[in-house]
Task: structure prediction
Amino acid sequence: MQSRSTFKHHVMSDPMLLVVEDDQNLANLLEYNLNRAGYKCHLSGSAEDALAVISRKSFDLVLLDIMLPGMDGFELCRIIRQHQLYKDIPIIMVTAKGEEIDRILGFELGIDDYVIKPFSPRELNLRIRAILKRERRQGGKIQDILKTGGLEVDLARHIVMLEGRELVLTLMEFKLLVALLKRKGEAQSRETLLSDVWDIDKNISTRTIDTHITRIREKLGETGSIIKTVRGFGYKLEEKEDEAHEI
Result:
């Protein structure tokens, strides 16, 4: 079984970034350098595609270009900041538009940083790390503890507690439980969960999700009933009825 120290290093060293950039060559270059720096990336070539992706996948930070086909980066930023589920995701604008008015508008919309092209990969990496470190230290935008009823998941220490008792989960079981908790009450397809946990490995069947859900339910005992099967679709996590109706 994987040791907790190894497990912690794996989870903390792989933040997931959404890169919204319509220049495919630049997007690929960003992905290459960010992968080398220890990040995972999802590339979106338009604001519309980014919105579709962000609605079904969790991200630690967004790198956002302004000049995009269709909806521009400013409008996408405005939508993200107004949405209850995504509003706290850190955003760095990465753009060739260096005028003061563009920078001011970006910060007024709630971005966390503004990087002007061309830039060095090292500088961008340092800015990303500074923001992620700040968020974890302040405990603000990045939620460190997920709770429902007697179940508590400490993301910083990678510990799962149930009624004061620590549970031993595998890496994939932990990531799957976190994915369900982060969107508590929302039905998630097997494909979405597979994407969150396994990064869309085409060699893995979506039925693998069913196996891991069964194991998680077994380890949760009676509390495992909070993970509901959505027939023909996937799963969702709900509070127990008596907890959900407490005043």
In short: Residues 66 and 73 are 4 Å apart (CA to CA).
